[in-house]
Design the sequence.
């Protein structure tokens, strides 16, 4: 007959016996709690995770229930998936961590700490001494420097890269021409106004543009209107992706959109410089809100529908972007913001995440979803909206 293991410890049950505050108090970190909504605690990242600079004060989310699920919302954090209390302790204790998956002697160290916090094996100990080197020195916020101010001459020359863009489908290779023709709102004058277009692989006899060549390229500007970079969308992505799936997903998955390797996408709102323009501010006043969308095309199409919009360049909003959206909401007269993400499954998941982030910072509305409007807009993208469909959504947004 199998005998019970007297040394066995139910770690999950032990984790349920302590609160997040007890854990943070043990490490002398209780003061780091910046915000609490229900059972979720938000704080700056205080983990030994390898970061080299301070984070925002709400990037770390910890569920103060059950086994203390947690995750980090910093856009470039390797621990976005987070873990449970065991993994959290692994990244809180001094010494070599195991990437939130402690094993062997490290797990024993984590378990001993957890038992101390729970008062099971020596009582609650004094706060753990954290070495000074674990506290990163203050650093300026992450930004993208204007290309015109770059010490690199080639980078400075990219400020006028948009002058090489082709906006006439008749002068493009078939994949790029098809991309524009499937989007009739991307007329030449519209593309030129937004400084986007097709960058031929052979453009002007020089090599400017690098990885952007052969792609549909969008110029990225900061809120002051200064050029800070470009992103390139592969016009042949759909065909390449379908072929990759058909081949059994062998090799690397085709990349849909490329950003320069040194570019910080998570602090940018595409189109935000336009929010300073008088005509766009009139659109905000008329609609009583401005839109937050996923991609550049969504913002471009919204502009044609006389609705101001910015894009997060993804289907998930970062903490930095959410802070910036909230700031714009205040600057524009404390107007609510309206989410208009894609209504496929990925877009709706991102919409939930963005709704949560923004609702903590400013008033927020939802323009549509997979189920709203009797499911009429399920699996749609904002750029596909007709004028009549937009009027239907506009009526919902402006309804008191």
Sequence:
């Amino acid at each position: 007959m199998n005998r019970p293991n007297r040394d066995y410890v139910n770690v999950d049950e032990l984790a349920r016996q302590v609160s997040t505050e007890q854990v943070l108090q043990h490490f002398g970190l209780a003061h780091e709690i910046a915000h609490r909504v229900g059972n979720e605690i938000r704080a700056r990242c205080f983990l030994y995770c390898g970061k080299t600079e301070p984070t925002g004060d709400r990037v770390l989310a910890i569920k103060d229930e059950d086994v203390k699920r947690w995750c980090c919302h910093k856009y470039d954090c390797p621990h976005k998936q987070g873990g449970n209390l065991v993994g959290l302790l692994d990244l809180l204790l001094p010494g070599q961590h195991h990437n939130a998956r402690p094993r062997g002697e490290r797990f024993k160290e984590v378990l001993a700490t957890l038992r101390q916090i729970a008062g099971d094996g020596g009582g609650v100990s004094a706060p753990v001494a954290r070495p000074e080197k674990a506290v990163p020195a203050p650093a300026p916020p992450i930004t993208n420097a204007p290309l015109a101010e770059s010490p690199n001459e080639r980078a400075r020359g990219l400020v006028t890269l948009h002058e090489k863009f082709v906006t006439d489908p008749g002068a493009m290779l078939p994949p790029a021409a098809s991309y524009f023709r499937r989007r009739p709102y991307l007329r030449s004058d519209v593309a030129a106004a937004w400084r986007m277009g097709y960058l031929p692989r052979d453009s002007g006899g020089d090599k400017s543009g690098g990885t952007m060549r052969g792609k549909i390229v969008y110029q990225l500007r900061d809120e002051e209107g200064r050029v800070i970079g470009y992103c390139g969308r592969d016009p042949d992505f759909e065909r390449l992706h379908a072929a990759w799936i058909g081949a059994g997903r062998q090799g690397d998955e085709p990349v849909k959109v490329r950003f320069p390797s040194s570019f910080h996408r998570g602090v940018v709102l595409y189109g935000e410089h336009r929010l300073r323009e008088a005509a766009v501010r009139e659109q905000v006043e008329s609609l009583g809100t401005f839109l937050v969308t996923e991609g550049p095309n969504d913002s471009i199409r919204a502009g044609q529908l006389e609705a101001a919009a910015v894009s997060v360049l993804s289907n998930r909003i970062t903490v930095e972007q959410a802070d910036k959206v909230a700031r714009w909401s205040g600057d524009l007269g404390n107007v609510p913001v309206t989410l208009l993400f894609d209504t496929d499954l990925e877009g709706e998941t991102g919409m939930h995440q963005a709704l949560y982030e923004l609702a903590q910072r400013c008033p927020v509305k939802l323009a549509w979803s997979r189920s709203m409007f009797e499911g009429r807009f399920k699996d749609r993208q904002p750029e596909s909206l007709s004028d009549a469909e937009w009027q239907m959504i506009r009526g919902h947004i402006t309804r008191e």
